[in-house]
Amino acid sequence: MPGVVVIGAGPGIGRSVARRFAREGMPVALVARTAGTLTAAAEAVSSHGVPVISLIADSVDEAALRAALDAAADEFGFPDVVVYNAAIIQPDAPGQLPARAQLDAWAVNVVGALTAAAHIAPEMARRGGGSFIITGGMPEPKPRYVSLSLGKAGVRTLVALLDQEYGSSGVHVASVTVDGPVAPGTAFDPDRIAEHYWRLHTQPRHEWQQEVVHSGLTTRI
């Protein structure tokens, strides 16, 4: 049974999203940079009794990320859903980071998502369905979070471009924009946020949303 691939399966949103889809009986492929992160995520997901595969890949390593996506497809079949949740979250004022650090942040926040989409979305379109969901943030840019503001603006644009390219072929491309610090037991509890991903994946086509904003109080379209 085809399932979900979660890229950036660390503690917080990634792990909660994986558990949310596992609750529906879907096999889960976890992708992260380190074995320790994957072990913890796999333990959290396996309690739901679904097949789980753990794959090490850095989202900025194009060959490794593509190989991980291929391995997930070989194990469970071509995925119904791919969630891109990798990001570099850091405070930085204008000019504070050197150009190399800005490029590194952009590579994780945006280019990794583009790499995954370029590898997956064409086949989703050929098959006539699938969901590609990216974790967004920073609905308004903030001068104390320059690299993140730029990256999440890039995510929003990337979602629009991918929708233009693949939406008419049945691929639901969307983002979940998280407008606050993620922490269990708060309004930004990752389990609450994970519900948006499942809802986006199961939306009827005539109700598709490109972006859901989780503000902690209300959900905005």
Give a short account of the largest sheet.
8 strands, mixed
Overall mean pLDDT stands at 95
Rounded to an integer in angstroms, the radius of gyration calculated over CA atoms is: 16 Å
By CATH, the architecture is named: 3-Layer(aba) Sandwich
SSE order in H/E notation? EHEHEHEHEHEHEE
Strand percentage, roughly?
A: 15-25%
CATH top level assignment: Alpha Beta
Sum up the overall morphology in one term: globular
- Widest sheet, order of strands: 3-2-1-4-5-6-7-8
Structural class: alpha/beta
| Tally of separate helices | 6
What is the CATH H-level superfamily? NAD(P)-binding Rossmann-like Domain
Structural account:
With 221 residues, the chain is an alpha/beta fold. The protein has a single domain (4-220), classed as NAD(P)-binding Rossmann-like Domain (Rossmann fold, 3-Layer(aba) Sandwich), CATH 3.40.50.720. The chain is 45% helix and 18% strand. The chain is built from 6 helices and 8 strands; from the N terminus they run E-H-E-H-E-H-E-H-E-H-E-H-E-E. It has helices spanning 13-22, 35-46, 62-76, 99-127, 146-166, 190-202, and strands at 4-7, 28-32, 52-56, 81-84, 130-137, 171-178, 211-214, 219-220. It has an 8-stranded mixed sheet with strand order 3-2-1-4-5-6-7-8, with helices on both faces. Helix 1 packs across helix 6 (190-202) and helix 4 (99-127) runs parallel beside helix 5 (146-166). The longest helix is centred in the middle third of the chain and has 29 residues, at 99-127. The chain is globular. The relative contact order is 0.14. The model has no long low-confidence stretch (mean pLDDT 95).
